[in-house]
Amino acid sequence: MRVVIAEDSVLLREGLARLLADGGIDTVGFAGDGPGLVAAVAEHEPDLAVVDVRMPPTHTDEGLRAALEARARRPGLPILVLSQYVEQQYATELIGGGAEGVGYLLKERIADVAEFLDAVRRVAAGGTVIDPDVIVQLLNRRRHDDPLESLTTRENEVLALMAEGRSNTAVAARLRVTEGAVEKHISNIFGKLGLEPAADDHRRVLAVLAHLGR
């Protein structure tokens, strides 16, 4: 696996590279700011970009905005965001705009090396890894009441299996119902959670985030 690291702290990015190397993962490029990340992705075509949210010049959200730009230029680029806090606007855009190959972890999680390397591999393989604290903050922004309370028992079962990453076929097999029934339940879930079809939202992921943040 080939990785680009975008982090303005030399010590931290070297430390990340060392952790990745210990896990058999090659770091092929570094970036110290947003434009550097976009350029490094274009040059190296990595399997994954590990990105800090706060980067020069303002140290607010430049890294996350650059990650969105890099992903727009190279659709499907796996992005693992590392941060000390949650930047809600751009995090929602990153996660909701097609969440395959997206991760958002708080930096304190790096202390668990095995968990960090597992997250790197899962995101690079197209999975989604979202820190529980990130989920809570994003849902608090979206939620005025709790629409999850309106779900039926069967709809909750379907949503729980979706949260395990199961396909409609797998959900149908587990619940011993038809795929058509599963699709109907999922449609009902979207409706009750107010998740209307939109080009910028991945409704299945947003529904799972709501379930996980309950």
TrEMBL record:
Residues 2-122 form the Response regulatory domain. The modification 4-aspartylphosphate is found at D52. The keyword Coiled coil does not apply. Pfam families: GerE, Response_reg. Keywords: DNA-binding, Phosphoprotein, Transcription, Transcription regulation. One of its GO terms (biological process) is regulation of DNA-templated transcription. Gene3D superfamilies: 3.40.50.2300. Residues 144-214 form the HTH luxR-type domain. One of its GO terms (molecular function) is DNA binding. It comes from the Bacteria. PANTHER family: TRANSCRIPTIONAL REGULATORY PROTEIN NARL-RELATED, TWO-COMPONENT RESPONSE REGULATOR. This is DNA-binding NarL/FixJ family response regulator. It comes from Streptosporangium becharense.
